[in-house]
């Protein structure tokens, strides 16, 4: 199979609205303890799909290598949610469940994983596009030569269309 491009998708606030289970401290930082308490099957299945999901589903899979790259430590409930909604990719990259990469900031984690993918011979020279909602990730990807679109802005435009 001869892919023409790599298209990378974040999950949270890009394809999936999980904002109802992302508690913040008053200063806006993530309340990690409460986040893990809310990371359960019932809460995950209350997530909803965002407008970019239409674009994700419309991709020609014969021409595009589709990747999910999330800072989540995905568990079986996350995988069940994706399967329930028909969300599949050629590759899924995430934090290990064992917490071994929890010290990495999202941008560092995603850059590391994407760089490993891009070094594979079959992907050498392919253009790479990404959708993400986090400014630090968007900035880092652009600095590394990846066209990275702001998913919040794209979702807003798609919702208005």
Description:
The structure is a single chain. The model has no long low-confidence stretch (mean pLDDT 91). The chain has a single domain (5-17, 49-160), classed as Rossmann fold, CATH 3.40.50.1000. Helices cover 37% and strands 17% of the residues. It has 161 residues and is α/β, with parallel strands linked by helices. Strands 5-4-1-6-7 form a five-stranded parallel β-sheet. The chain has a two-stranded antiparallel sheet with strand order 2-3.
CATH superfamily: HAD superfamily/HAD-like
Mean pLDDT: 91
Strand content of the residues, in percent? Answer: 15-25%
* Helix and strand sequence: EEHHEHEHEHEHEH
Distance between the termini: 34 Å
DSSP E strands, number: 7
Please give the share of residues in helix.
25-40%
- The poorly predicted ranges are none
Helix/strand/pairing class, anyone? alpha/beta
**Principal-axes shape call:** globular
- Tell me the CATH architecture: 3-Layer(aba) Sandwich
Domain tally: 1
Q: How do the strands of the widest beta sheet line up side by side?
A: 5-4-1-6-7
Name of the top-level CATH class: Alpha Beta
Q: What is the tally of helical segments? A: 7
- Overall radius of gyration: 16 Å
Biggest sheet layout: 5 strands, parallel
